[in-house]
Amino acid sequence: MIALHAMRRRCRLLAAMFCFSCLLWARGAEPPSATTQTAADRFAPIASALQNKEFARALELLGPALQAAPGSAQLWIMQGVAYSGQGRSKDALAAFRKALKIAPNDLRALEGAAQIEYENGTAAAAPLLQRVLRLRPGDPVTHGMLAVVEYRQGNCEVATGHFEKAGKLFDGQVEALHAYATCLVKLKQFDQAAVVFQRAVAAKPDDQRERHLLAAIQLLAQQPQAALVTLGPLLAGEHPHPESLELASAAYESAKQTPQAVATLRQAILLDPKNVNLYLDFANLSFAHESFQVGIDVINDGVELQPQAAPLYFARGVLYVSLAQYDKAEADFQKAYELDPSQSLSAAAQGLAAAQENDLDRALTKVQASLAQKPNDALLLYLQADILSQKGAEPGTPEFETAMRSATKAVSLQPTLGAARGVLAKLDLQAGRNQEAVEQCRKALESDPKDQTVVYHLIQGLRKTGKQDEIPALLKRLARLREQATKKQRERSRYKLVEDDTLPTESAQP
Length: 510
Known about the structure:
By secondary structure, the protein is mainly alpha-helical. The chain has helices spanning 4-26, 34-51, 55-68, 73-85, 89-102, 107-119, 125-135, 140-152, 156-165, 174-186, 190-203, 208-220, 224-235, 242-254, 258-271, 276-288, 292-305, 310-322, 326-339, 347-355, 360-373, 378-390, 398-413, 418-430, 434-447, 452-464, 471-499.
């Protein structure tokens, strides 16, 4: 709701101003000439009907008036006002646009057309509002409307400028403040985003979600003490929400108050024992403070409750590596990959699969259709191999042979395509070509040293070829990569918490 009531009042005022202007046209102070008298006779009854909200009557009068004076921008504006009054926005927009063809800088016609395009949520509102600003610079309502239009189009850099110039227009308008803060977060202006979102909390101080969002932004802005103040009212209650406790734990840790961070996170786990993220947070704390066994003990509890949660096995594997318990670590990594086969699917193939609503069959059909047109495209060949592998192609099947040929050809066409080498290594392992798999993994890691799946496959390949010496170092490398990825994922989760809170189109209608 972007200054909803203010904008509605403004629309009513605009209509009244239109009518008042019409009356002025009809009632000049000077004795009218014959021509002026004719115009007054034409405008006065229409203006009176509009003023009295007799829109049907106004339209009846406008028909012959427009036939007599089709070049009158004022009459087209009046028709637009009448149609708007009847809720016929399409007809009203057409009328305002006709007025603009006659008088391109008529402020009333521009505002009328812009208002309708804004209500419809179309990008066409932007150029109209920009023209309004040129005629009336600094108008906060116009800046506010432009901010929302640009936000909807994903143009955050432009939107933030208009949000700022809208001033206090958005005070109390929570959804608009969400949009403003979200744009600032996307632009990594976290301090300013926190300031903006404090206005949202001020509007709804008892709203738990608003406080969670502000705390998340304050953590992104490296303001842990401010986040704790924000969460204070939620933590003071008898039954704090696990999400409040999770955010508070992160804030305590960021503020170097680790005992409070641990105690708060333990409380959250007790309240929500099946929440995998809470166990991962505890594993991160344990890793950061070298309390590896404590972390393993807590993860064990999580595994008992969520035995199919691959992230828990990854997290425990990382902690086992830190204790040099490599066999247990490798077993956990293997279990994690078994539970979550998508770990072997590359980022590019995951993106394609997501575009096909995670339907690998549809994704494969699309790739193969493209390959029919571009049979020597290395990326498409790699995607075909990756998706076939993800679908579970077994050695000896036509699908497996297709995947192997595709990956091999992709590598020959583009030797630096590390992802293709990673898929080829996986297929080699399945086919028992362990030495070839090791070689492909090493070359793949030259292109992308942080590819966790390739590191894991290299470990598998070395174990199968009997070369054990390198495995402990590789397990440590995999553990570091996993820990780094987990931290980044938690950071992304905070972004997502904010960015998912979008401005509903229907709530931003004037």
